[in-house]
Amino acid sequence: MLVSNLQVKLPIHETFQSTVQGEGFWTGTLVDFIRLAGCPVGCPWCDTGYANGGQGLPSVPRSIAQLLAELQSSRVVISGGEPFIHQNLLEELVRALLATDKQVSIETSGAYWQEVSPLAWITLSPKEHISPKYPVKELFWTRANEIKLVVSTGEEVDFYRKYFVDDVNIPVYLQPEWEKRDRAIPIILELLKQHPSYRLSLQTHKLIGVQ
Questions:
Q1: Of the candidates 120, 142, 143, 138, the residue with the CA atom closest to the CA atom of residue 128
Q2: Looking at the DSSP assignment, which residues form a beta bridge with residue 15?
Q3: Which of these, 11, 47, 97, 107, has the minimum number of CB atoms within 10 Å of its CB?
Q4: Which of 120, 123, 5, 126 is closest to 67 using CA atoms?
């Protein structure tokens, strides 16, 4: 494996360590988070603050060496924002993490593509249904290790189902939109009856009050 340039700097929104992954396949796992700054997609429920483009949100240049020095968990989640907008920089970070024997997960809307190590776990959470300008790049439908759909009305499943209905090897998680969870959870329970291979994903970290 090639060694990364540890002095390469990335725009960082925030980092936090030894928290619990609250969503998807790795729920309950102790993880560190590296949130890269910037995202144009504009999800209205964005936890990180990029619903309106993120103007004024933190974006602090930090070197890969600085990021590595603060890690505490065996798995590191790279999120954002949208990590894949950072061409070349993302792969440098992934390479450096893998070189230190970290397990790596990346969360993405799939709207931007670049090659990253096949050892990196990709969580694809598509947003084309709310931001038509940002469709999922086709390669992600086979590269993703899991698909996470944020559900508000249930129509989200019909919107994307044609892309992954026949692929039982990629788990599909239905996650209620947090602010509409009282309405969304019963909808998801009905959807699970129609699609028994799908799974419910609750935001466990919010339920137990951790970041």
A1: 138
A2: 34
A3: 47
A4: 5
Distance CA 92, CA 142 (A): 23
DSSP state of 48: T
CB atoms within 10 A of CB 36: 25
Residue with the larger pLDDT of the pair 69 and 161: 69
**Residue 34, CA distances (Å) to 81, 92, 197 in order:** 10, 14, 31
Buried b (16+ CB within 10 A) or exposed e, 57-87: beeeeeebeebbeebebebbbbbbbbbbbbe
C-alpha to C-alpha distance for 127 and 129, rounded to whole angstroms: 5
- Give the model confidence (pLDDT) of 32-84 as tens digits: 999 999 888 877 767 777 766 666 778 999 999 999 999 999 999 999 889 99
Per-residue pLDDT tens digits for 178-195: 889 999 999 999 999 999
DSSP state string for 102-135: -EEEEEE-SSS-----TTSEEEE---TTT-TTSP
Pair 66, 12: CB distance under 8 Å: no
Q: Residue 54 to residues 41, 43, 82, 104, 109: CA-CA distances in angstroms?
A: 10, 11, 11, 25, 16
98: tokens are 């893998």
Residue range 153-161: mean pLDDT, rounded: 93
Domains with residue ranges and CATH for the chain: 9-150 (3.20.20.70)
**Position 176 pLDDT exceeds 90:** yes
